[in-house]
Write a structure and sequence with these properties.
- This protein is mostly helical.
- The protein has helices at about 25-45, 50-75, 80-100, 110-135, 140-165, 165-185, 205-230, 240-260, 260-270, 275-305, 320-345, 350-360, 370-410.
- Helix 1 (about 25-45) crosses helix 7, helix 1 (about 25-45) crosses helix 10 (about 275-305) and helix 12 (about 350-360) packs antiparallel against helix 13.
Length: about 400
């Protein structure tokens, strides 16, 4: 590895004297994902059926993969350099075009725009990284060479899907997503080139934790936008006010589940870990996509409750009952929190598992309760999980303090 004085100007300094924090241009880049999440959630709001739900999964995974690979690359690239800023702003424009294509991504015409945008971003970034780090870290450059080849393989299916008839597009894009998911699981293994050792990913744990937390805030903001916009178009009768409050309460509870204690614990855990790259892969790559999906479904469920608080099937073309969406959203978000907290060193939390089981049990009552009643019931389950987790943490902290005092007394 070359000395710091000879490293390319595109790279961040790895010196402890130079904080590795999220820059304003990166936060600016994240703004475009507010629009992307809005587009994805509104598609399911307008057509809450099984086919749209499946397409929502594919589109959410694609947009998440764009964001998370950008975040990993910015762990090494210096966002204060002019070229990197130009790259980020150009990527922002491409994401905006992709987001504009989302409502008709599975219709004629727009699918190719979405596919070309995704392929251009993923392949272009990987090739940039190969060039940017080759004089700084040969092993990392080789890793991004492998990444480029994997993206080239999935690009075939993305583009074929964009060109295929709309009814066949999902199959091609599902195959493309599968390749993109398998790549990191196999550590980008290729014949001759082999696989990437985790030690190559010399990441900043503080940066990864902060970046992911800020993105979760962005997605939580989408639930606020949906709730506020939908309520502003209503008359504001008592039932609608109750629906508005239940939607706001669900956003607050979901914020508490992630940010109350464990977000800061995640920062400390990854910084202290001897294998921070693997922690980042689990805690800040895989678990957050489950959280994001849960929040997208929550935004959809909140608007449907606001529009049809008493009708479990709000429209003639709604094939997924609102209550099913409510319970699925809360269950998926709880699962994401469970996986995240396990990845940062906590045990498998009984409180979260019990919450998921309680929500699963409520599916039996999905036809007996109105969507408004179900939303409040789901909120009650989330609140119970938060209280349970808080009390468990308090007892553990008290026990640890007593043990430290007893140890000090013995000494």
């Amino acid at each position: 590895m070359s000395s710091p004085t000879s490293r390319p100007s595109l790279m961040r300094s790895r010196s402890n004297a130079e904080p590795h924090r999220v820059s304003f241009v990166e936060l600016f880049f994240d703004l475009v994902f507010v629009f992307a999440i809005t587009q994805i959630s509104h598609g399911l709001i307008e057509h809450p059926d099984g086919g749209t739900f499946t397409r929502t999964l594919v589109l959410t995974m694609a947009m998440w993969w764009v964001w998370v690979y950008t975040t990993w690359s910015m762990n090494w690239l210096n966002p204060e350099r002019s070229l990197i800023r130009v790259v980020l702003i150009t990527a922002m424009l491409v994401v905006l075009l992709m987001s504009s294509a989302i409502p008709e991504a599975f219709d004629e015409g727009q699918g190719l725009i979405f596919a070309l945008g995704y392929v251009g971003l993923q392949l272009g970034r990987a090739v940039l990284m190969v060039a940017a780090v080759r004089h700084h870290d040969a092993a990392l450059s080789l890793s991004y060479t492998r990444t480029s080849i994997w993206f080239a393989m999935s690009a075939v299916f993305w583009i074929l899907g964009g060109l295929a008839p709309s009814e066949e597009r999902l199959y091609f894009w599902a195959a493309a997503i599968a390749i993109d998911l398998l790549a990191p699981l196999f550590r980008y293994w290729l014949p001759v080139l082999g696989s990437t050792a985790p030690s190559v990913w010399t990441i900043s744990g503080e940066y990864m934790a902060e970046r992911t937390g800020l993105f979760i805030i962005v997605v939580l903001g989408e639930t606020i936008i949906v709730t506020g916009t939908a309520f502003g178009e209503l008359e504001g009768n008592p039932t609608q006010v109750s629906a508005f409050l239940s939607a706001f309460a669900s956003t607050v509870l979901m914020w508490l589940l992630y940010f109350a204690h464990d977000e800061s614990r995640g920062r400390r855990f990854i910084n202290a870990s001897q294998n921070s790259a693997m922690v980042a892969r689990s805690a800040y790559t895989w678990a957050p996509v489950v959280l994001v999906l849960g929040l997208v479904l929550t935004a959809v469920a909140d608007e449907l409750v606001l529009l049809h608080p008493s009708d479990n099937i709000g429209t003639e073309d709604q094939y997924i009952p609102t209550n099913v969406l409510i319970l699925t959203a809360s269950s998926v978000y709880l699962l994401g929190n469970l996986l995240f907290k396990r990845a940062i060193g906590r045990p498998w939390l009984v409180s979260h598992i019990a919450g998921i089981l309680a929500l699963a049990g409520l599916f039996a009552a999905s036809n007996a309760l109105s969507p408004l009643a179900m939303n409040w019931t789901s909120n009650a389950v989330l609140l119970a999980v938060i209280v349970w987790d808080y009390r468990t943490r308090s007892r553990n902290d008290s026990t640890s303090e007593d043990n430290r005092e007893n140890s000090a007394t013995i000494d």
